[in-house]
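Would you mind giving me a polypeptide sequence along with per-residue structure tokens?
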Amino acid sequence: MDFLYFPEDKTEYIPGIISVIVIVILSVLIVWLLMKASRKEVKKLEEQGYTASSDNNRNNDKLVLKEENDATDYDKETHKLHDKES
């Protein structure tokens, strides 16, 4: 069973551990950058007169984009716009 290799010298694990740490740090950095870009997009939408919000009380996953006097729902599953029922 030579396909599993567990070295006697444990210092051979150091490059693998360094690789895992670098990947985790880069992953956290990418998620942080995506969140920052998302916040910037929401601010841009709000400046254009829209309100972007996610309503957690609904059973289906919808994103609500509404202008000051007009409200429509975008259903992510069917990819269609619906008039908001209030």
